[in-house]
Amino acid sequence: MGLVLMLGLIMTLCLVSFAPLSYGYDPLDPNGNITIKWDIMKSEDTSYDVKVSLFNYQLFRHVEPPGWRLSWTWIGDEVIWNMFGAEATLQGNCSRFKGQLPHSCEKQPVIVDLLPGAPYNMQVANCCKGGILSSLIQDPSKYGAGFLMTVGAASTFDAGHAPSAYSIPANFTVKLPGYTCGPPLEVAPSRFPSDSGRRWTQAIGTWNVTCIFSQFRASLTPKCCVSLSAFYNSTIVPCPTCSCRCQGLPGTRCTNSSSKVPSLLQLPHDATEELPPLVSCSQHMCPIKVHWHVKQSYREYWRVKVTISNFNFAKNYSQWSLVMQHPNLRSLTQVFSFNYKPLDQHGTINDTGIFWGIQYYNDMLMHSGDDGNVQTEILLNKDATMFTFREGWAFPRKISFNGDECVMPPPEKYPRLPSSAHTTSFFRFTLLIIPCILFLMFAF
């Protein structure tokens, strides 16, 4: 019986340990997801109008350029007649129609957001951001997107009668690395205010699609690493070797010469897809490196300098975010040059916070070069119940950049206090010499 219980416990632990990889669960953002809302607004004899909305309910993970690309599979032979606030990348084969042609006849249309500055007669609320969605914390006013479209069934359009039921598409996807979307689920119809909230209208029907993120599905290799240093030790602990990938492996691109970058970046690619990383050749081969430096110690405070460096020649990181975990963050006093907000995900334990750039100042992390870094300094109060510089306590427990967890150096490599080695040697010497002295005292 004991063996059966032990095996059951082991299987449970295995399932729990693999759950974050399979389902994209993030303990720092347990409810984070991208929700697609499908609202049927109006029904005509031959078509119906749909309002499609996307909401990024993630606390610190945003959607950066080239942005979301929403796609689905029509259940019947539907076509998109008109679209406002977005556009289909392909019109497809519309040869069966005469006169005015539909906007898209694709069975699996791919929809992209309009760019800023689109014509006013094509705009709707929350459109025209180039597919960018802010996280909830960084900019709550820009976490949503939306567009309108008119849908008709090709087989019934010429016949002059309405479809018997609304066929909600299947196989939704936002075509972003690491995201998986579930099936559409019917929910209570959305309500919309008018006349300053004195009147409310509602959709004919509403369906929600939930898309979750998994770092394991997004990339088999990490995207950032961490290096460490301190004022009390001359050793700089670099990122672990091959943190993100190793030089010479298939699919790995790096260069030591900035003059070769333009030719290396001239690759045929879809304008709506991100270029593969072209990093500066290094021992860690990561696009992003975060350096944590214990800078100074005062009587009641201690100061940390954090530097984020972009080694990716192929990309500028806009609206970047940095999430750091350290027990002394609950006593954080001041942050210079960055925005900051604590992530209170563990009740009274406030050991994690999100940092991001100041708009129009350092919210854009430029590509590798002299200006390819942003820096901040953090002033923390010395919490008497826990503070120490010993045993690497002053260094972070976990760091993630844009929601991707960074590779940390092994704890045994952390910079140590210079006196730690001497203290340990003296302690060992004392343990050896005391028995000898006692032996001599009692022997004679």
Automatic annotation (TrEMBL):
Membrane spanning residue stretches: 426-443
Species in which this protein is naturally found: Eucalyptus globulus (Tasmanian blue gum)
InterPro entries assigned: COB_C, COBRA_pln
Signal peptide (residue range): 1-24
One protein family per Pfam: COB_C
Keywords: Glycoprotein, GPI-anchor, Lipoprotein, Membrane, Signal, Transmembrane, Transmembrane helix
Chief location bin: membrane
Protein name: COBRA-like protein
